[in-house]
Amino acid sequence: MAEPALAVAVIGAGIISEYHVDGLVAAGGATVAALVGRDQARTKARAEALNIARAETDLAAVLADPAIDAVVIATPDATHEAIAIAALEAGKPVLLQKPMAMSSVECRAIVAAAARTGTRLSVSFMHRYFPEVFWLREELASGRLGKVHGIRMRNATPGADWADWFYAPGSVAGGVVMQLGVHGIDLVEHIFGPIESVQATMRTQMPERRLADGRTIHSTLEDTVFANYVLAAGPLVSHEMSFTERGGCDRFRLEVYTEAATVWLRSPRGSAAILAPDLTGTKDWVVPDLASEPLGAAHHRHWIAVAGGTEAPDDTAAAGLSTVLVAEHLYEAAQSGGTVALRREAGA
User: Fold this and answer.
1) Among 182, 276, 291, 336, which is disulfide-ready with 323 (CB 3.0 to 4.6 Å)?
2) What is the per-residue pLDDT across 214-226, written as a single tens digit (0 to 9) for each?
3) Is the preceding peptide bond at 268 cis, omega within 30 degrees of 0?
């Protein structure tokens, strides 16, 4: 007999909610039972656009509803701690949008609530679930690529133009490092292991921004960052982050340089490409044949299994804390102009 579909409430009616709703639908095994927002009219209109029958503004009532099995939290950064802890205390498994919270202190409070309540907590790192990332992890695990020497990660877009809160320090945890760079930080640690020390230079290159609704806003948050990492396993990493690029890159661009190969992900050569004559038998780049499915399907299929208890909890909550911790050290390194060693407490 088939397991009943997980009934999920998506908390937050902004632009990121569409990714989660579409991903849940594509994954199967779940129904989006409710959309929760602050404004009834806007939330209702958004729910209708996303084919969600129930639009709510009373978060407490949704969390108390036994018909809701789990929640996705896709609200501004400053709300994450309170909403996540409330959901965990209500016994609802959580998928929490990145960045996990405004600070590592808040992240630890959320992790502690999950441990105290025994409720499953995940953080949304969508890039982990791309086919090329699975492929690269398998290639590295096989050992055939040899020792990793250097890594280049890029996260770059023109920057969000859909909301002013995105550039308000009281609403968000930081600029491009926290809003986009944490994706790259997570991929580096997820694929290659923990970051041991950091250096960073950061600037606000576009203090004036024009939003899609015609308003011009002022921003003091960093939008251009060049960072260097030393990994515990030895490789050196260059990480570029930008909210100022017209073209930017497609989600991320990753270059890996090893003893036996050069590997590029999400480059002009495609989602993955490898140059490794001794392994492939050709001096040309080789593009692996990777499976494809709708954006978010693999991510949400995994989370549905974790939230439903059919798969073991993953490490994304610990990773959510780690990425914020690394970001805080990047801000410290940029201010000091030096190299900063990661100070990790238990569980980071």
Assistant:
1) 182
2) 999 999 999 999 9
3) no
